[in-house]
Each structure stands twice: as structure tokens, then as C-alpha cells.
Amino acid sequence: MIDFLQTHLPALIEGLRVTLQLTVGGAVVALLLAVAAGLGRRSRHRWLRWPANVYVETFRGTSALVQLFWFYFALPFFGVSLPALVTGVLVLGLNSGAYGAEVVRSAINNVPRGQWEAGRALNLDERKVLFRVILPQALPMMLPPAGNLLIELLKNTALVSLITLSELTFTAQVQRAATLDTVPLFALTLLIYFFVAQILVAGMRRLERAVTRHRGGAA
Amino acid sequence: MIWSWDYTFEVLPEILAAFIVTLEATLAGFALAAVLGLAWATARMSPVSWLARGASGIVEFVRSTPLLIQLYFLYYVLPDYGIALSPLVTGILALGLHYSCYTAEVYRAGIEAVPRGQWEAARALNLPTGTTWLRIVLPQAVKPTLPMLGNYLIAMFKDTPLLAAITVMEMLQTAKLTGAVSFRYLEPLTITGVVFLVVSLIASYAVRYLETRHAIRR
């Protein structure tokens, strides 16, 4: 047991570091894109709505792994060659961002119309209504589905192993090939993912509580 | 011009042929997920506490770990126990198992939405537990969940390229191999993406239709 951990744990932790980089990097890209595209799909301007629609439908409609392969193997034909880590962060962010855009959009749609009208009646300009009245009310509705997306993002980081980045799954594969400790090694790897997922879930719960407390508990 | 139409038409038939494998994996995997998910959902509601807690634990664990490693796990471990399955069957098992943990949640919501009075009425009529589940509760519980199940069917369809990692010749693996032969990945990978996009757009419209039809009936 100790022997097994001594052989594998250092390498797996090194892999986990890359997995966490992918998760955090992907989440940041996804957050920016989700807000931009979520608002864009609601815009009055066709030149904002259209690109946002195409982005969301394309990335939700195709497979994450196909997107990853496309950016890694096909994009170089346009003269753009990105390293595996950058490709991973970018594609994971683009993919989750498209799902996140729908979360943002539906949360905003669920804020009662009267809130927009009240904001306008108070002579607030459009942007102030959005950022000071609507989004603060939409935020608590966004957090639970955003938490689910974060777990999906973490799970999707495993796909990046298939474009040869040594994150956790890739490392587990390499260690397996070297030692053939298949069952305990994969079991340990699954446990690490499970553990990280539980931490993310707990973190999102805290965030949800913080946001609702700030609003005086009224949902 | 970067894009070559000649090459596109050369590789198109191969990729479309591989679409059959993708479709097989999706449908067989989903059939498994639909049945197994129901088993998880009923086990979680069982009065036997170790059964309920065990099922919850398994569902939670499988849902929060990557499908890819589950796939490797089955692929490398099953042969050690003398179970030699083809990569496609292994892939179908992994997909079915993974998504059964999502369908379990869907069924659970459906079962909880069945009014308590239905249970009580069944008990008043002295129906045995099995009959109550099969004839009273499940028929009412499953129908409203169809759109959600449809969404997971689409999600599973989009996860089938993962089977490429265990050498199944589905669409993505075929695209990658044809690309490797000619050193041109652009066309095969783009075609694969477009096929996924077209099929899942059509499927999402079908699910939305299912949703509105159900909403009207209520």
C-alpha cells in the first residue's frame, strides 16, 4: 500500500496540478464567454445576437472531443498552432461557455418584467438597470446550474489527455503502462477526481449561501 | 484555398459509414442507461437503508468522475477477470453505466412528482408493492421525464467520440485516421463536427416538440 502510493502519488499529483490549471483556466474563459454570449443573445442588435447564437448552437451542438481535436489538428491548417495546454483551456472554456450562456440567459429571463419597468421608471439608463437591478437578482438563480457546469468542466479536462497533455488521466495511463497496477491505479485516480469534485461542490454551496445572505435571504 | 472539396468528397463516405457505429453505440448505450437508471432510482427509494445509501453513493461517484477513465477502467480491467468484450461493447457498457446515473436523477424527479394519493389508493386496493410500482407509479412517472431523457440521449450521442480512446472506429476515430494517412485533418474533422451539429440540432428540435406537446396536454 505504502509502496504503491510512493510509486504513483507524486506523478499523479503533478498531473492533478495540470488538471486544476485546465479547470480554473477553462472556468475563467467560460465565465467571460457565458456572460458575453448570454447577454448577446438577448440583445436588440442583430449583429450581436447573431454571432452569439451561432457560437452557442455550434459549441452545444458538437462534441467536446471533436472540438478539441479540431482546434488541435485542424486549426494549424489556418496557420494557427497552439500548445496543448492553451488548446485545452480554450476549448474547455468555449464549450462550457456555450452552456453557461444559456444559464445566464434563462436566469435573466426569469427576473420579472416589472423589475425592468421599475428601473426604467426611475430613469436609470439601460446599463444601470441591467447591472444594478437585474443581474444581482439573476445571480442566485445562476449559481446552482453553474455549479453543475463546473463539475462537467472538471470531468471534461480528462479529454485533454487525448491531445497528449500530461494531466491526471494521461499520467494515470502512463503509470499503468509502466507498472500494470491497473485496478488500484485507476481507482485512486477516480477517487482524486471525486475528491476535487466534492471540494468544488462545497465551494459553490458556500458561494450560493453568501449570495443569498447578501440579499437578506429573500429568493 | 485551404479547403479541398475533392478531398472532402473522397473521405465523406468513410465518415458517414462510421456514423452507423456512432449511432449503434448511442442507441445501445441509451437503452442500457434507461433501464439501469430506473434500477438506481428505485433502489435509492428503497426502505432497505444500505441499498438506498449504496445506490446513492454509486450514482454520486459515477456522476462526478470522468467517463474517459471509467471507459479505460472497463477496457483494461474486465479482461483480467476473463470477460473479453469487443471495444464497442465495452464502450456501450461504459456509456450506459455513466448515463444511467443521470437518468436515475430524472426518474427520481418523475417518481417524486407522482401524487401521494396514487400510492395510498394502490395500498387501499391491496395491490402488492411490485404491481404498484409497475402498473401505477412508473407509467405515470416516466412519461413526463421523456424530454429530459431526450436531452441526455443527445448528450450521450455527443460523448460517443470518447470511444475512440479505446480504438472503436466511430466517426471521430475514422476522421483522425483518414486525416493521418493524408496529413490533412481539416476536412475529415470538420465533416465530423458538421454531422454532429446537424444531428443534434434536429434532435433538440424533436425534444422541444416533445416538451410543448406535453405542456399542452397538462
- Major protein interface: A-B, 39 and 38 residues
Rg of chain A, nearest Å = 21 Å
Q: Based on DSSP secondary structure assignment, what is the total number of beta strands of chain B?
A: 0
Q: Output the radius of gyration of chain B.
A: 21 Å
Q: In which range does the helix fraction of chain B lie?
A: over 70%
The ordered string of helix (H) and strand (E) elements of chain B is HHHHHHHHH
Determine the mean pLDDT of chain B.
93
| Helix proportion of chain A | over 70%
Distance between the termini of chain B: 55 Å
Could you tell me the number of beta strands of chain A? Answer: 0
Strand content of chain B: under 5%
Class based on secondary structure composition and strand pairing of chain A: mainly alpha
Low-confidence stretches of chain B: none
Oligomer: heterodimer
Principal-axes geometry of chain B comes out as elongated
Notes on the protein architecture:
The complex is a heterodimer of chains A (219) and B (218). Helices cover 81% and strands 0% of the residues of chain A. The termini of chain A are far apart. Chain A has 219 residues and is an all-alpha fold. Chain B has 218 residues and is mostly helical. Chain B is built from 9 helices and no strands. Chain B has helices at residues 5-44, 49-63, 67-77, 87-112, 116-124, 129-142, 146-159, 171-182, 186-217. The longest helix of chain B has 40 residues, at 5-44. Chain B is elongated. Classes of the chains: A mainly alpha (219), B mainly alpha (218).
